[in-house]
Amino acid sequence: MKRPFFSLITPVYNIERLIAKTIESALSQTFSDWEMVLVDDGSPDNAGKICDEYANKDQRIKVVHKKNEGLAEARNVGIKNATGKYFLILEGSDLFPNENTLSSIYSVLSENEVDIFFGKLQDVNETDGKVFGVQNDYSVNGFIGGGKELFITLFDNEDVLALSSPVNKVFKTDFVKENELWFCKGIYHDDDEWIPRTISLSDKTYFTNDIIYNAMTWDGCFGQVSSEKSLTKKAHDKMFLAEKCLKDIDDRFPEKNTAFKKKYYEYYVRIFIDGVATLNSVKEENYRKTIIDSAKKYSACFKYAGKCVSNNLKILSLIKKCLGTNFAIKMILKRYSAE
After folding, report:
1. Where are the domains of the chain?
2. Would you say 48 and 63 are in contact if contact means Cβ atoms under 8 Å apart?
C-alpha cells in the first residue's frame, strides 16, 4: 500500500459540536495525498461516533478508539499509527486557514526533505470567524540547519511559539519515531517538554511566515479560572519536567560547558522558577506545602542554575548551596512579587 505524504493527527475528546468542521477542513484540501488519524480518547459524547461515520465514507480517514488518558497520549497514539512521510497535529477543534494549505507545504517538502517544517498560526473566533491574533514572524526564514545551533537562535530571539507549540509545525515521521520522541503523559505543559528536545535533535529545518494553522477559540474553551488545586498541579508539573529535561539533555549530549547546554539549562531552570513562583498566587496552606515539597524534590534544578549564562541564576544557585532551598525559594518569590 502506497505511503501517504501527510498524516493528519487529530486527538478527539468531548468536541462533538466541532469535530465535523475539523474533518471537513481536511476534506476540502486541494492536495489529496493524506491520511487522517482520529484518536478518540474515550470521548464521553458522540464525537467518536461522528469520526466513525466519516471513516466509513472516506478510506483516508481512520479512527483509533482508546480509553481516556489525556492529550499527550492521544498524540502519541496518533504518531504511532501514522504512516505518512510527514505528520502534523490538527487538534479536534481547529482548522486549516484555506484549501491550499497542504498543497503549499507539499511544494516545499516535495523538493527538500527536512525534519521539521515551521509555519505560523493565527487565533480565530469560532463564532464569527474573525482573526484576533497572529503569531509573530520567526527570527529565521527558509532552509537552515537544526539541532543545537537552532535552539540557541530561537532562545536568544525569544521565538516562544517556535519552542512551545506543536500545532504550527510539520514533522518527518521517521525522525520522530526513530528518536522515540513521545509526549510525556499525565502532565500540564507537555509541549514545553517535547518541542525543545525535538528541535535539538533535528538536522535540517524550514521556516516560513505563511500561516498554516487556525487555532479556534470560543467562550469557555479554556475552561474556568484556575483553582488553587490546578495551579498547584501545574506548578508541580513545571518543576518535574524541568528536572526531567535537564537530566535528559545531559544524557543525550554529554559534552560540558557548551553554549547550547548553557542556554538549554536556562530555558528549563526558568520553567522551574515559574513553578516555584506559583506560591505567590496560592494561599491555602496545604497547596503551598505541596509546591514547596515539589521544589525540594526537584531541587537539582538549582544546581543547573549555576551552569547557566545568567549571573542572576548563578547567584540563585549559590544561595541555595550556602543557605538552603527554603531561602532560595524566598529569593524567587521576592523577585517575582517585585516584578
Report:
1. 6-217, 228-338
2. yes
Checking DSSP bridges between strand 204-217 and strand 116-125, what pairing results, if any?
parallel
55-58: long-range contacts, CB 8 A cutoff, minimum separation 24: 58/27
**DSSP per position, 27-67:** HT-S---EEEEEEEES-SSSHHHHHHHHHHH-TTEEEEEE-
Q: How far is CA 287 from CA 234, 291, 314, 327, 337, in A?
A: 12, 6, 28, 19, 19
Query: CB-based contacts of 309: which residues, under 8 Å, 6+ apart?
Result: 262, 263, 266
Spatial distance between the Cα atoms of 138 and 73, rounded to a whole number of angstroms: 29
% helix, strand, coil for the chain, step of 5: 50, 20, 30
Q: Give the torsion sign (CA, 248, 250, 252, 257).
A: positive
The pLDDT assigned to 223 comes to 54
pLDDT in tens, 202-241: 999 999 999 999 999 977 665 555 799 999 999 999 999 9
The span from the CA of 91 to the CA of 22, in Å, is 8
The three-class DSSP label of residue 13 is: coil
Cα Rg of the chain, angstroms? 21
Spatial contact of 85 and 5, defined as CB atoms under 8 Å apart? yes
CATH superfamily of domain region 6-217: Spore Coat Polysaccharide Biosynthesis Protein SpsA; Chain A (3.90.550.10)
Task: Name the helix (H) or strand (E) containing 325.
Answer: helix 325-338
Considering the entire predicted model, what is its pTM?
0.93
CA distances in angstroms from 223 to 29, 56, 196, 218, listed in the order given: 31, 33, 27, 10
Assigned C-alpha cell, 83: 504512516
6-12 and 204-217: which strand pairing?
Answer: unpaired
Q: In this predicted model, what pLDDT tens digit does every residue of 111-156 receive, in sequence order?
A: 999 999 999 999 999 888 999 999 999 999 999 998 999 999 999 9
How many secondary structure helices (H) and strands (E) does the chain include?
14, 9
Q: Provide the 3-class DSSP secondary structure of residue 256.
A: coil
